[in-house]
Design a protein that fits this description.
The complex is a heterotrimer of chains A (about 300), B (about 350) and C (about 300).
Chain A (H helix, E strand, L loop, with lengths): L1 E10 L4 E12 L4 E5 L6 H8 L7 E6 L2 E2 L5 H10 E4 L3 H4 L6 H12 L3 H15 L15 H14 L4 E5 L7 H18 L2 E6 L2 H7 L2 E6 L2 E7 H6 L4 H9 L47 E2 L5 E2 L11
Parallel strand pairs in A: 3-8, 3-9, 6-7, 7-8
Antiparallel strand pairs in A: 1-2, 1-4, 4-5, 9-10, 10-12, 11-12
Chain B lengths: L27 E14 L2 E14 L3 E5 L6 H9 L7 E10 L2 E2 L5 H7 L4 E4 L3 H4 L6 H13 L3 H14 L6 H4 L8 H13 L5 E5 L7 H18 L2 E6 L2 H7 L2 E6 L2 E7 H6 L4 H8 L49 E4 L2 E3 L12
Parallel strand pairs in B: 3-8, 3-9, 6-7, 7-8
Antiparallel strand pairs in B: 1-2, 1-4, 4-5, 9-10, 10-12, 11-12
Chain C lengths: L1 H30 L4 H6 L5 H11 L5 H13 L13 H36 L4 H15 L2 H15 L11 H31 L2 H8 L4 H39 L4 H10 L3 H29 L7
Classes of the chains: A alpha/beta (about 300), B alpha/beta (about 350), C mainly alpha (about 300).
Amino acid sequence: MKEFYGRGLLARKRAAFRAVDRISFDIEKNTVFGLVGESGCGKTTVSRALLHLDPPTSGEVRFAGTSLENLKGKALRTYRRRMQIVFQDPNSALNPKMRIGASLEEGLINLGVPKPERVRRVEEILETVGISPSHQNRYPHEFSGGQKQRIVIARALTMQPEFLVLDEPVSNLDVSIQAQIINLLMDLKNKLALTYLFISHDLNLVAYLSDRIAVMYRGRIVELGTTEQIMDRPVHPYTLKLFSASPTLHGTITADEKVQENEPAEAVSAGCVFAAQCDRRDSSCLEQQPELVDIGEGHLVACIHGKHIPPA
Amino acid sequence: MKFEPGMNGEARNNSNKNTNADAGNNGELLAVQDLDVSFELQRGAARALRGIDLSVRSGEIHGLVGESGSGKTVTSTCIMGLLPTPPARINGGRILCRGTDLLALPEAERRKTRGREIAMVFQEPAKYLNPSLKIGEQITEMLCLHLGMERSEAIERAVELFELVGLPGSKRFLSGYPHELSGGMKQRMMIAMAICCDPSILIADEPTTALDVTLQLQILKLILQLRDRFSMGVLFISHDLAVVHEISDRVSVIYAGKIVESAVRERLFNEPLHPYTRLLLLSIPDAGKRGRRLEVIPGRVPDAEHIPEGCAFHPRCPLAEKICSREIPPTVEHSEGHTAACHMIGKKWIDS
Amino acid sequence: MKLLIFASRRLGRLILTIFLISTIVFFVIRIIPGDPALVVAGMDATPEAIAAIRAELGMDQPIAAQYVQWLWNVVRFDFGQSLISGQRVITLVFQRFPLTLSLAILGILISIVIAIPLGVISAVKRWSAWDYTGMAFSQLGMAIPSFWLGIMLLLIFAVKIPIFPLFGSGSIVHLILPAVSLGIARAAIILRLTRASMIEELSKEYVITARAKGLTERMVKYKHALKNALLPVVTITGIQLGYMLGGAIITEQVFSLPGLGRLFLTGIYQRDFPLIQGGVVFVAIIFSLINFIVDILYSVLNPRIRIE
């Protein structure tokens, strides 16, 4: 079980800026936890904090029962190995001057794995992700976008991780390739008993893949629950807004209501982060930040008016 | 043929400019016929478009869906006349804008149609806006050039236009610079620039791809409102089938430089005829498909230099037979307004 | 307002730079071999005479005190007196400075007039006759040493065809040939930069938008692209002006112009320490000032920089 709770503070020159504010959640083994939100919601900060690439200012990350906070050096690296990350852009993830076989070997060399074993593992992993091992002496630019992303996934797998953070792994890919990669990820999860944190702005994709979903807005989790709970009975006004804005293969947009471009100002320090944009706000919303409240069976909502309101 | 200059600043709900009667055949403001474009590259010719047919009527949004490498960007660039014709070569076809073949016009005349008759909105406004020119200037220059307005008149009009698209309608806003705007505001500015001369056709090339979902909704609604107000025809290009569904009246699917299917939106999404369309729809994830594997189209979109013989899709098609590798399937109208180019229409679909 | 904040920050940097340079000059002078007191006194002087001169020059004080005194002098532009002529350094410098400055400015103007139009046309009409001319000119300009060019110009235009005076100063006419020889070498660099910058801008996406708006090619190139293309050119040109001041030294020798360059050159031969010291600091100040002005100018032209 992987747990993460805490507060991440990102200090800037003048004022401290909370990129992520008191986020807590746990992820069970061999499940997919989906994190959905728009740009600026803090999801990338979370992914980096989990792996201690940017350690949180306060709070704790626990991996399989062990806290990462006080680990340093070798001990930290041992844990880090069990958690890997796949980013959005395979071009910047792969060294263009390095043959992909060498890229994959790198991590294994650092582990001190002997050469014959390394060769075997690299070939095995390439096969697993659907790249022919005979291509391992090619350079990244010789591959397509989808293939590069497979190679990035392969590289993450060389470390034999248990936990994978996937930060928008298919956003840059074509539709037909997305499906291939998504199927691959699910196959790998089942075959290797992996646990995923899947981060995306695409609600439909997250709903397809995840067992549980957290909706983030401006550094806070505003709603958290199983996929069924979130998809069938969304409660938080931001979740509802996200739903209505996400395009589907069955929806139609109408040219109603003149929408002015409203630039949300810097979040009010007191009060709900979403208050400025919310239709249902009242005076109590501006007084204090609502906490996540269990409205039934582990479905958490951070809203004072947090009962399920049927969509308009 | 001359395009009339001079627009006054009134609301144009009743503009006679874009009504059906005034437009070309059956109310089509834009009709692309059999457009064939190739690129001369060192390693051979790349066939980007192999006979495209498209039309957009007044007040209609026609969605063009395709993956990268399908030719959708070449289509929009070619219609606008922005293809650099040394590497690119237009081998045939016509582009009719309100009845006039743009390809037959001399460049000087063609230039006058850009921004005036046909306007375009691009994908990443940050890159597509000039950072050194003031916001107001980037619109007023068009008004002065195309509509012959005086500068003061143009400034007034620019203020009105910005309000129309949901931006601050003030002189102060006009003297700012694009980098001061957020992503959504930049896109609104691009849209304002595109509609400022009341064009008949708006080409939107992935206008919301770079935006957050909630912003995307606002921009799409804006496009709809402007379409209503100006009775424009909109060619909406995207790789995102869901967005295309939400906004289009008619949809065409482009693959390897050919339109493989075209129909009214409901028909295309509910009763797709072409295997590519069907597979594409099946491969999109959503909550309803949880627990099931996604349908996958094996292989990749072919490079424009190595397009397969016969039907370009046949190497990846589950229904392919011998004829598919030999003959290019003709575009056939299977029911009213619903065309598809496939030899195997009617063949039983192999169920997953 | 943002511009003011920006300007004051740059000003701060300017002052810091001058301070650092003064410090470096101070210590370098004291490290290099050679004893100024000995130079002044002469080889045959007695140790007492040397000591006396040393005291006069203030060189018997502890280093720290000398340093503070030096800094204080810099602020007041008091660089002491020339060991050779006895005149105040600052007076000598100010006498010669206008000539050198005029030469440098004229040189840079000639550069700009040649380089920028040629660079723009090269970019706009790539692979045309203009472009090849520009590239050839640029290659030659960078390869030919300016003093050789200077001598050639003198030979042709002052000796063979006596249009210009051979030496002397006093009017603009005397500055033209030297300015040309200075300017051409620098023009080569500016031309290449202008061409590259313009080519890069023309390939950017906003140019596509400009064309899609139906703007004339002239508007696209000269209103939209050129403005952005010239930004880096402004910076480089400003810095070139600084180098002009330095390049002027050699040119002044060739053309026998009584400018700063000759003054410093003579001072170096004669080991005139206060003069050298003062000269270096003075030129450094001018150079930094030019950079400062260029920075401000750049931020006026490029609104994005001001945010920083």
